[in-house]
Amino acid sequence: MIHRFFADKRPHKGMNYREYIQSVINDVASGPGTLSNEEKELLEYKKLNLQRSSRIERTYVISEELKSLIENIKDKQLWMVITEGWCGDSAQILPYIVKMAELNPNVDLRILLRDSNPDIIDLYLTNGTRSIPKFVVFDLEGNELFAWGPRPKALQTLINGWKSEGIVKPELYEKIHLWYGRNKGKEIEAEFIQILK
Fold first, then answer.
1. Positive or negative CA dihedral for 140, 100, 133, 17?
2. In terms of Cα–Cα distance, which of 85, 84, 131, 138 is closest to 109?
3. Lowest-confidence segment of 23-27, 31-35, 50-54, 189-193 by average pLDDT
4. Among 15, 26, 53, 170, which residue's CB has the most CB atoms within a 10 Å radius?
5. C-alpha dist (Å) from residue 159 to 31, 37, 129, 164, 174
């Protein structure tokens, strides 16, 4: 059965990474204008997330083990990431996925905005919520090979513990981003190696 993402009725097949980043840059450049307070807050997150993503793009070197697994993908695949520019987890994860996808011409990475594609994100709810990013891989017949996200399991376990201790935003966000900065993608790599094996 062809997955809904592949149906001809979809208005688009997603953006590539450069198009996605440019759309976030354009949002930030347009400034707060007449935005609501909530929208202004999301705009600030987008600014910060551009810096986070840029840092990972500049510094990440993929491990030889994962590189080998990705380079050995023989059949064409679609890698779909559902995200939004304001999502901190996405800013810390998407650049790793992009670097991985660039290793193999058989991989076509496409990015969908969550809020513009509710029918798709609703197929990938996390405990009933539209948590992002969601990373889903398909073969060209539209068969789903695996779905991952919204964050590494090790981090989610820590978050569950922090929440049970009563830690709330913004301290929670600070701890999450500190973890990403120290981990440098190692847990993301470990999980993807396990999946690809």
1. negative
2. 138
3. 31-35
4. 53
5. 32, 27, 16, 8, 11
Secondary structure class of 130 (helix, strand, coil)? coil
Torsional sign, CA 122, 125, 147, 193: positive
pLDDT digits (tens, 9 = 90+) for 110-130: 999 999 999 999 999 999 999
What per-residue confidence (pLDDT) applies to 33? Answer: 82
Q: What is the DSSP string of 22-51?
A: HHHHHHHHH-STT--HHHHHHHHHHHHHHH
Q: CATH no. for residue 90?
A: 3.40.30.10
Alpha carbon distance 102, 82 (integer Å)? 18
pLDDT in tens, 85-107: 999 999 999 999 999 999 999 99
Give kind and range of the element (H or E) at residue 178: helix 171-183
**Residue 139, domain member (yes or no):** yes
Residue 145 within a domain: yes
Domain count, the chain: 1
Decide if 161 is inside a domain: no
* Contact between residue 5 and residue 80 where contact means Cβ atoms under 8 Å apart: yes
